[in-house]
Design goal:
With about 400 residues, this protein is of the alpha/beta class. It has 20 helices and 8 strands. The radius of gyration is 27 Å and the shape is elongated.
Amino acid sequence: MSNKIKDIKPKDVFVSVPSNLNPTQKPCIITTQDDLTKLINKISEPKAVGIDIEHWDKDTYLGYICLLQFILPSGDVYLVDTLALEIDSLKMMKSFFENPNIIKILYGSDSDLMWLQKDFGIFVVNLFDIKIAADMVDKKKDNSLAGLIKRRLGIEVDFSNKHAMQQSNWSQRPLTNEQIEYAIQDCRYLIQLHANLSQELLQKFTGDDLRSFNAVMQERCLKTHKAPHPLSEERIKLEFDKVVKEDQKFHSQSRTESHQSTQVWGCFNSLMKARDIIAKKYNFNRDVVLGASPIFQLIIDTDTKKVELALGELAKEGMIEQAQIGHIVQDLIAIKLKPLPANQEIPKQFVSDKQKKKYEEKMARREKMLEKIVRQKPVYENCTLLTPDGQILSYISLSFV
């Protein structure tokens, strides 16, 4: 595959393709394998095809492709409902995406390419990224998709709902009319922009510059998808500072009691890292497991009922299963109540004996609480208490203990 990608030359990318534009034409929505097979044959005919992808990651750890949009030089738009089709059927598109004779035109392709690899094992051969090309011509101008369409094609496009549409639930079916219109707008002008930018790139730049552009396209196509890294401590600190500022009472209190802020930060940091582990374990989005604000409130309120209620609301929306709530809360509590290391020292921020004494009393209370709740007797693996009608009343798992 890498050889196919590296064999692409500038002459293969900068090909002007005549195209028609029919803004009122309705899209064809592909939901069956037969229709997909016909579409693959159709999109394999022209020299260039515009492509966009809609993705949803609010209820899983990695997310998934929900919609593929194709625009042909004829002006025909096709929307492939990836959720209605089997994975094996979608992998049939490999022949199209890896065909070096067809230019695949995308705008801001980095995430799209990696999603295709992750979900369908597809690498793209012969890429033209509109955003990178526009930045190469003139980086100082407005190179947003709407800005390029207006400046280069003389067409005003309303993208005022862009952020709302990007955040909308693309996994819901049926899609709303607004979502469908946005999906069309995102790819409708890609072929015209490719022709416009190709012509200017050929006029303004030398062979070396064009080869450099082509190398950037190849490098992007060769990138492989990697699972998200756990949040860095710097990123967690930014989240912590944000939630502290939002909680005015704690913010003002922490100025006079710096030790309290230190203790809360330590716990917040541990829970945020634990949230990543839990999210990956259950394949949930990080914020579905628990957002930064609820984690902060859990620490300062020490009230797990609030967490259970928040998770219960998510269960009602179908974003998590009711049975998982107890596991998630137990995971969080297990880490939250983890005893401090034996060599834990009093923070250096203490400036008076009174503060030092208050801190020591707090630690003593904490140790007493831990003594009460720490297991003293053997625990049986997967012990479950049931009500007479078979509903789970309580359970214990050794892995959580």
